[in-house]
Amino acid sequence: MDRPAAAAAAAAAAGCEGGGGPNPGPAGGRRPPRTAGGAAAGSRQPSVETLDSPTGSHVEWCKQLIAATISSQISGSVTSENVSRDYKVFRRPDIRALRDGNKLAQMEEAPLFPGESIKAIVKDVMYICPVMGAVSGTLTVTDFKLYFKNVERDPHFILDVPLGVISRVEKIGAQSHGDNSCGIEIVCKDMRNLRLAYKQEEQSKLGIFENLNKHAFPLSNGQALFAFSYKEKFPINGWKVYDPVSEYKRQGLPNESWKISKINSNYEFCDTYPAIIVVPTSVKDDDLSKVAAFRAKGRVPVMIHPQSPSNNYPVQPTRKQDEKYLQTIRMLSSFVDARPKQWSESAYPNAELVFLEIHNIHVMRESLRKLKEIVYPSIDEARWLSNVDGTHWLEYIRMLLAGAVRIADKIESGKTSVVVHCSDGWDRTAQLTSLAMLMLDSYYRTIKGFETLVEKEWISFGHRFALRVGHGNDNHADADRSPIFLQFIDCVWQMTRQFPSAFEFNELFLITILDHLYSCLFGTFLCNCEQQRFKDDVYTKTISLWSYINSQLDEFSNPFFVNYENHVLYPVASLSHLELWVNYYVRWNPRKRPQMPIHQNLKELLAVRAELQKRVEGLQREVATRAVSSSSERGSSPSHSATSVHTSV
């Protein structure tokens, strides 16, 4: 399948306030844009120098930034079959449009994904950039994205925002922009905001605000998420990445202590657990059912990795069957409680117990809110470090890594299993167990292994993605929302910084995962549990993110990856060794300089290295040939040994 490259990753932190950012997925056979970019990934500290605008005119700099961003954007055409029946266009007489005719109209058209349809097109919309002011252009709203384009600039200025990343849409006053008396502020989940202004008459005719609300929050409006309409074809089926039985067998299960159980095959045992679980061999299914009936939400302790069972609820053995089951677990394990030390230790009789003091989802949500305030739309250079510290974001990342290191060390050095749990078992537990497994098992540090880890620990074991992210829901103040999965990916990125050759995937891989956590283009992160995904036909009616990624592995591969099997990683969980992930959190800042992503630089360097190596090998062959020729010419004369060439590039 031909998939021409979309906007260069170097230009991902696009433009002004929200940026002329890239598209988050493949469009009409186009490759999903690369969203890495921004500050050089090679710099260790989030230096303010990489965040401010250069000396000189902000307008001129913005022009350069836009040029770097838009130069490789793909223009597409809107075919008649892609346009829905409620497709509305409001056009005012325009001298240039009348003169250039179809050429200009074609330039303004938004590229569409297979299955995507246009809902409204509005002329003379103003995008309000805090650096370069108002930019006039055409706004297209589809059932997947908001697409703004100015064709009068050279190169064109483009905003391309998936509706899934929108947290809320609010009307604002825009009287300062003349006739454009209506305004909309769009608050996004991925650290950016947008402001648009337009004429009141266009709002009344086209319902811009209503269209955005309807398609940005489809579930709140009785509609399906766009993932169920997306019709791209990929050569690889990403839904086949994870097979639980095969993965458990890879880990050496079942064995004398643990067995693979299908007691939950109909999700009647525990509706938030996967169909296949691993439990102690000494426990019968009847006893398991009795334990599940006693435990809240039925989430009994189960095996997630050899010598690493995961207990997903506070241990309070007050009934005989539950006490017997937990005693079986205790004989195999020590206990780690992810929560602050406010729970009674009497719940863990005769057991080693460690509290990790990790805060709840509400604290993490507030921390991310503070982080967004300091990175967008402007940065206080004089107080940058103190402002970052004031968010406590890196401190919470440190606590997660430190907890995972303790778990991994107990398993590796202490040769003991560890029971990990928090309040419910689908937030902090998932963070800790998946990070510990990433440290212990080199397979999970490969691309397909990491996909398996996410499918296993997060998706199948019931992390509540729909609630934590708020897919298609207009209740932006929902207390269930929290950046739990984002924190996990941030921790993984911190590990890749400390062990740059230990992971097969690159930074673009992690950013792509986060972009599609919100986009609702793929079905991978939809719903709250495995049972709900089967009920909603996610596995048959949507496409997996891994289908896209695994169809172009070179884009997401670390060229310096070295697969050290059975090598345990112990990252340094200290603030002095952690840094703010500038290429993700600050990429939309309008004053951030676009730079070549490090993975692209590395690929180019490796290409040069390969070419030089070929030249060296050619020279070595030439020297060897000359030596043989010289030796044969001398015949019986005293032999002369040729000096071999040993050159490493």
Averaged pLDDT, please? 79
Structural class call reads alpha+beta
* The named CATH superfamily of the domain at 238-514 and 565-570: Protein tyrosine phosphatase superfamily
Rg, nearest Å: 28 Å
Number of strands: 15
The assigned CATH architecture of the domain at 238-514 and 565-570 is Alpha-Beta Complex
Q: Which geometry do the CA atoms define?
A: globular
What about the largest sheet? 8 strands, mixed
Distance between the termini: 35 Å
Named CATH topology of the domain at 238-514 and 565-570: Protein-Tyrosine Phosphatase, Chain A
CATH class of the domain at 238-514 and 565-570: Alpha Beta
Strand content is 5-15%
Query: Helix amount, in percent?
Result: 25-40%
Secondary structure layout:
Blueprint: H1 58-70, E1 83-90, H2 95-100, H3 102-108, E2 118-129, E3 133-142, E4 145-150, E5 157-162, E6 166-173, E7 182-188, E8 193-198, H4 200-206, H5 208-216, H6 244-250, E9 258-261, E10 277-280, H7 285-294, E11 302-303, E12 309-310, H8 320-330, E13 333-337, E14 353-355, H9 361-375, H10 384-391, H11 393-412, E15 417-421, H12 428-440, H13 447-460, H14 465-470, H15 484-498, H16 507-519, H17 530-535, H18 538-541, H19 545-550, H20 582-585, H21 598-634
Parallel strand pairs: 1-2, 13-14, 13-15
Antiparallel strand pairs: 2-3, 2-8, 3-4, 4-5, 6-7, 7-8, 9-10, 11-12
